[in-house]
Amino acid sequence: MNDFDIKMIKKLILKGQWLLxxxxxxxxxxxxxxxxxxxxxxxxxEILEDYPDDPRGHSCLILGKKDNKYIHTVCGFQNKxxxxxxxxxxxxxxxxxxxxxxxxxxE
Length: 107
Fold this sequence. Notes:
InterPro entries: DUF4258. Helix content is about 25%, strand content about 35%.
């Protein structure tokens, strides 16, 4: 699986073919995010950025929403499963809003 397709990502979530990296688990706990909120945000989300040259392997950034909270989730693939690499709330200074990178982090 090399190409990211939001429909395929959503299908893997619904089929239970997803994994949570140890890093993602640590960050969810640190950021007070619940996995159900992350999964819900992916299911109503869209691919915001694609990272084909990520040294850790091809990944993408998904923008989704749970209730009135935007959540960013970075995902990749391992074997035939979706891997949730990390999740966070897009905030200043890294993000101006949920779609716009800000400050020195702007690429």
